[in-house]
Amino acid sequence: MASLAVVLIILGCGALMYFKGTAVNAFAMIIIAIFSSVVAFGYFEVLSNVIISRGNEGTLLSLVPWAQALCFLLLFIVTFGLLQTAATFLARNPVNLGFMPELIGRIACGIILGFIISGLLLTALQMTPLPLSYPYERFDPSNLDPGNPSGALFNADGFATGLFGIISNGSFSGKNSFKTIHPRYLDQLFMSRLIGETSNVSSISPAIEVPKPAVWPASEAVKKQVEGFVSELKTHRGKVVYEPGGKSVAIPISTEESYNPTIVRVGIKKRAINRETKVNGGVFTPSQLRLICTRSTGEAVNAYPMGYLKTKDEMEISPEIKISTSDIEGNARYIDFVFCVPSGYEPTLVEFKLNSIVEIPTGAIVSADQAPAVSPFKSSAPAPENTSNTQSPPRTQSQPQQKQTRPEKSGLSNISKSVVGDELDE
Among candidates 298, 271, 158, 293, which has minimal Cα distance to 209? Predict the structure, then answer.
């Protein structure tokens, strides 16, 4: 469906420019579309927070899961319309370059314009809470390979996000470029919908906090468990068994690169847990928590948690994590997540859902002998598996197996808020 949409939009724009435009006007529209996309990418998170922060109840509640996509499209359409109106007013007299230049120019510019617009549309659709197969299935949940994404025809959406990544890395960059804060952005959007129907946004920004110390190497016992689970990911098509009954969960961790098992402590703020199930920071999946790792060259990658510490030397895997306000003493519930940090990279940022991001503070990364006491956490009731997922084969005796714990009381939810405020300087 996505590839068909790309073809139709490209053909439509090509025909429109051929019959109704000129080569100069068509070229101007490409420049306007690129500038409009910069505005949309740069400010959609800030604008969507206006809806998300007011969407705990009332008429805005139903718009909250769609807020980012709607704001992205609104910004693009309004900016494009205003600039196109200004261009039409300034260029009242059409410029004719001659038959062949006009013919080639109109069609070529129309095709490029359609390519850009189709990429932006597909990107917006992936921001929505649509099922995994819409606009297209970027990864196969039944055979998850995070290093091998699928794409639409001509990789139109990859071009759109990549172009803004390049632009934001230059003179448009603020404290951090889009490529640093959102590496592999399309993958991130898909992973946020990978498991169950948990909302893709949180109502409070930031909904998380990172204390000091926050990052330290995993113990030898945990490292052995991680090695066992990585081996299971390789043999069970990107899934691991998370309970004795044989249920499995897809984990977006690449098994092709070297890594360092690392503990990262993340606090879920009490005020982010709301009564509304649609917008609740207390209900999330592991694929909705990202550790953004960077290296000296400025390159950034995403790392997703494999699980969290149940005890100092035992980790647990669960497809969904639920926290209620009764589970929290103080202002936040701290959980020690286990990440496979790629070798040569250092944890820099943590993002929760699609709209809440915090920086790992200076001095928060410590050695193993400086690690704090573990903040143990027990698994909550598992999320329903996606209908497109298939169950993996039973675990062999040689592989580590986690004990199933009694589900915790789940807090009623709230999901959808806050954008990256000061941390997102685009």
Answer: 271
DSSP string, 120-176: HHHHHHHTS---TTSS--SS-GGG--TTS----GGGHHHHHHHHHHHHHTTTT--SS
Dump pLDDT digits (tens) for 38-90: 999 999 999 998 888 876 666 677 788 899 999 999 999 999 999 999 998 88
Rounded CA separation 217/220 (Å):
9
**E-assigned strand segments in 274-363:** 283-284, 289-294, 300-303, 305-311, 314-316, 321-322, 332-342, 346-352, 356-359
As separate numbers, helices (DSSP H) first and strands (DSSP E) second, the chain gives 8, 14
Distance CA 125, CA 136 (A): 10
Statement to judge: residues 185 and 218 lie in one domain? no
pLDDT tens track for 410-421: 343 333 333 334
Q: 216: closest CA among 346, 373, 375, 371? A: 371
Report the SS3 class of residue 374: coil
What confidence tens digit (pLDDT) does each residue in 170-191 have? 544 456 688 889 999 999 999 9
Structural domain span for residue 166? 2-191
DSSP 405: -
What is the number of structural domains in the chain? 2
Place of tokens 């804060």: 181
224 and 145 in a single domain? The answer is: no
Say how far apart CA 296 and CA 346 lie, in whole Å: 9
Residue with tokens 């009694």: 406
Per the CB < 8 A criterion, the answer to whether 13 and 110 are in contact is yes
Same domain as 104, residue 33: yes
**Could you tell me if 425 and 176 are in contact, meaning their C-beta atoms sit under 8 angstroms apart?**
yes
274 and 381 assigned to the same domain: yes
If one compares 296 and 419, the residue with the highest pLDDT of the two is: 296
